[in-house]
Amino acid sequence: MLWNPASSAALSPDEKLLVIAKLAARLDSEGNIRVVASDTRSQKQNRDLAESRLADLVRRALIVPRKRKATKPSHASKERRLDTKKRDAKKKSDRRSNHWE
Asked: Is the CB of residue 23 less than 8 Å from the CB of residue 60?
């Protein structure tokens, strides 16, 4: 099944750009997306499967991820990290010290 997102009437211009950008690796030289299904022996069932896979592919491409909200580490997590660093540093310094002198 071939589908060209640039010439599709089902998408708005912004959606077309989003789909083309996200599915750029799947586009051929003419800008078509090819979806193939050969799961069953029935041509109609395979065509229906390919259509549903294409619809799912486009649906996932249209999802805009949320912006990441910057957070700061908590005071307790900073303390735990520093305690672990101190413990590890002490362990290593104990290894280096010469106990046999």
From this structure: no
Would residue 75 count as lying in a domain?
A: no
Q: Tell me if 20 sits within 8 A of 28, measured CB to CB.
A: no
State how many domains the chain has: 1
Q: What is the pLDDT of residue 30?
A: 92
pLDDT beneath 50, residues of the chain: none
Please count the other Cβ atoms lying within 10 Å of the Cβ belonging to residue 13.
Answer: 8
| β-bridge partners, 3 | 33
Q: Are 54 and 8 in contact (CB under 8 A)?
A: no
Residue bearing tokens 């029935």: 42
pLDDT digits (tens, 9 = 90+) for 55-81: 999 999 999 889 999 999 999 999 999
